[in-house]
Amino acid sequence: MNVDPQKEQYEGFTGRLYFIGILIALAMLLLVTRLWILQIVRWDEFRAKSTSNRLRIQRLEPPRGMIFGRDGLRSDVVLADNRAARDLLFVPADCDRDPEEICRRLNEMIGIDEAALLKKIRKSDKENQPHRQILIKKDIPRSVAGRVEEYAYALPGVFTLVRPVRRYVYGRTGGQLLGYLSEVNRKELNASDGIYRMGDLKGRSGLERLYEDTLRGSDGRMLVTKFATGVPQLRTDPYGNPYVENLVDSYGHNLRVEKEIEPAIAGKSIHITLDIGLQAKAEELLKGEEGAIVVLNADTGETLALASSPGYDPGVFVSRRGSRERMEILLGKPNRMINRAFQEVYPPGSTYKVLMAAAALEEGIIDENTTFTCWGRFHLPGVSRPWHCWRRSGHGKVNVVDALAFSCDVFFYEVGQRLTVDRIKEWSTKLGMGEKTGLDMPGEVPGLIPSREWKEKRLKPAHPNEPWEYRWYPGETVNLSIGQGSATATPLQCAVLMAAVVNGGYRVRPYLNEANAQKPGERLLSDKTVSLIQQGMLKCVVKGPPAPSGTGHAAYIEGMSIIGKTGSAQNVNLKHQEQYENDEDIPKELRDHAWFISGVLDLEPRIAVSVLVEHGHHGSRVAAPLAKDIIEYFYASRDEQDDPLLMTQSASPATGGDRP
């Protein structure tokens, strides 16, 4: 059989050809599909990655929002703003001279660490980053910046960078209220979701902390080209406006701005009710003492002054001054970081008698005709030891008006036994004693007005089978009736109590931010109760003769209707004081705290004042004169400012740098 060799050679060729064609077609299909996925389906993803590899977002920090206050009748007084801080920098690539010569000249001109600067320059050379901006000195004074500019021809590569820095215009005055800033820590950085960057400042106390989100503002940004290595070198013009220097990075790679600047949005400003002149006066009066002075608008709750001593200048935390002063503020004694007006508690002492009188009158326990006889001591049935009145010879027969005027302890011992601790606690809560006032500031403490429930909750766990340990005793009510025992309150709470007496019986909520203004709540005291308490507190201040002077006569001002109540809050056992013959011999740490709460009835605006001097011993001698000075200053400064010919600035701003 003859076989065609050609046919045998190519048998099956067609099938193989089809098979190869199918493989090629499948490969092309896979390739086209992959290209379609990459070019069409995932186009946005890869475009974003490409842009990210090519562009760098240069962050622009926003200036912090301003804080405005008042000064008498003037509003919109700047309390905190931002000044232009100048940092001195050096760029090796811009220097055509020996860096050692530049360092020597700088040391002669402004005093720098030559060795440290040379070390940074050599490190930059070693890492081949000639365009790196090397910090020479932070926050240089304007005079130094002027000298550097004057000798710029001899200092090639040296320039200044302008940035905004917080400025507290009045320095220490109101510093505790405004608060301070410090750098964010790593924990805060990780939890901030990109809001903060390393080196950013954050409010740590006061208004800076409470309104951090409002004051901080929003970052701006600039998009520039970038290389795998290198950092764009940002500079600023004399006004603080940023630009990329010579459009290069730290290695000298040429860059370009891909997108115009999205400007940083400054933080929002806040307006507060603080009267900076009054605050300065209050802090001046407290100089050398530890204590607090609070001044409220009695009708609205506006906080006009919230002075605490000792205080601090928050500018220390953002200035060129060293860390030594900062550590002294943070760790020194006495504690400067707490505001004693609302972050520290004290026994209210005899100022609490105002609340006792209000509660007893409202509950019908007493009226204007109720009298008790004070023999200088008080006895409980079955108790041998007496409770003494501060006036050991006694006050004789007294009613509520005289009891307030002359601060008779025995009268209020009697009232307390009839009211009982339950109703005392109830009225304390109503009038804001022993609980937070609602002030818009961080760190307010509540104080304490004890009750049966409080004592049982506190002591029963340790003595479950000894009910006598946590039972409430009548003697504890006696102590509570004059603001002693376990009772504690803040000077701010006493000012709120005083405001209710001045404004006709309404409890106000104190506030600083004008945006937080609220109308007073429901009326708590009747006209009759308010009238009787005001009579007693007027008599406390009015000077005799013919009637004897009250305990607060040192606060008397001719022509003003001033009401007041003194207080001396015992903080150690009396036996520690009785061993000394004269008050002046008692060591300061053993002396009573001195209180005086007061208000003005016949001038507008009506104010409530609370003064506390730690270990001042006698409210009548120490605290009352301070209240008088505060009241005189407040109304006199407003009268002066009301006359354009006499208008003066009552508090002088602290010196600071220029604004950016």
What is the total tally of β strands? Answer: 21
* Most strands sheet: 5 strands, mixed
Assess the beta-strand content as a share of residues: 15-25%
Ranges where pLDDT stays below 50 over 5 or more residues in a row are 227-231, 645-651, 655-660
Shape: elongated
Based on helices, strands and strand pairing, what is the structural class?
alpha+beta
Cα-atom radius of gyration:
37 Å
**Helicity range:** 25-40%
- Separation of the first and last Cα atoms: 108 Å
Mean pLDDT: 85
Tally of contiguous helical segments = 22
Indicate the multimeric state.
single chain
Report on the structure:
By secondary structure, the chain is an alpha+beta fold. It has 22 helices and 21 strands. Strands 2, 3, 4, 5 and 12 form a five-stranded mixed β-sheet that branches. β16 (about 375-380) and β17 form a beta hairpin. α4 packs antiparallel against α5, α11 (about 275-285) packs antiparallel against α22 and α13 (about 350-360) crosses α15 (about 410-430). It starts with a helix and ends in an 18-residue tail after the last helix.
Provide keyphrases for this structure.
660 residues, 22 helices, disordered C terminus, 5-stranded antiparallel beta sheet, alpha+beta
